[in-house]
Design brief:
Layout lengths: L3 H4 L29 E5 L5 H11 L4 E4 L9 E6 L15 E4 L18 E3 L3 H19 L2 H9 L15 E5 L3 H13 L2 E6 L8 E5 L3 H5 L4 E4 L13 H6 L4 E5 L8 H10 L2 E6 L19 E3 L9 H16 L15
Parallel strand pairs: 1-2, 1-3, 3-4, 4-5, 6-7, 6-9, 7-8, 9-10, 10-11, 11-12
Helix pairs in contact: 2-9, 3-5
Amino acid sequence: METIEDMSMHDETAVEPTAPCEGGTGPAGGRSGKPGAVLFYSKFDDPVEWGAVLKSELPDLDFRVYPDVGDADEIRTVLAWQPPPGFFEPYRNLTLVVNLGAGIDSLAGRADLPDVPISRLSDSGMIALMRSYVLFSVIRYARNIPDFEAAMRVKEWRYIHPTPLHRIKVGVMGLGHLGAAVASSLAQAGFDVRGWDQAKKAIPGVNCHSGAELASFLSDVEILVNMLPLTPSTRGMIGREVFEAVPRGAKFVNASRGLIVDEPALVEALRTGQIGAATLDVFWTEPLPAEHPFWAMENVLITPHLASITVPEAAARDVAESIRRVAAGQGPLHLTEPQRGY
């Protein structure tokens, strides 16, 4: 089992390189200056809306929606969210994949995906939604709302004296583009915010920890927020040792990925009171099975993986620019490093 010191060696640093792209050098590749056809795949996002906003940026765009692929050799760009195994095998002339979200865990390490750039989304709408979800979750605990909800069910007028926000210590694990935005918003709201990331970060109003400082970061956190990316090294990272490292009764918010958290360890921590309550948006299995113990726990709030979504009208300009850049032999915006998982 990993210790807190072992966990501190995980790397969550995101990058934004725009180096020249090496993909698409064949006769149908991306160096011709023509973007080729774009294929859209998602069970959750609206292809009609995406097609409309992208064509407002690229009027001549050949936009196709899976499974109406047409000639697979004409596909240069894929916009996808959680494509099934083997999805990319037919697309021999692929030059760019745009992930319809921030986390690329469903694209990393795939045997069917050729070595082409993978771009993530980083739109203002997605960031605003994530900020609102975490602010809601943290404020709900800071202002004792679960206690008032319980009192209302038994018709009890229960007064709990409010704690000034600057006295409430909130910790954010993972300070990538979404984590940093969340930490900044919490600080602006008046909380005493500290953040942890493997790499050194500087965020105004946030006491940033890094690397081997994980244990000291956790030691006085009253509300812990998970914003880590899911990578092979962060899978299961938040478990018994993390829950035991925070003060007894601390609250936990997971708005990132379910597999980062050891669910049995969290269930036990919630049952014993080591973790006082949890707000959970993501899980090992989704939809969450009816027999899962989380459903029966009064100190758990469950939401169905909706902390943040992509907002097409906010993201379309960046996606269109990435398509243009790759067609011109350059790197896309918001380039990821699949070997690192983000």
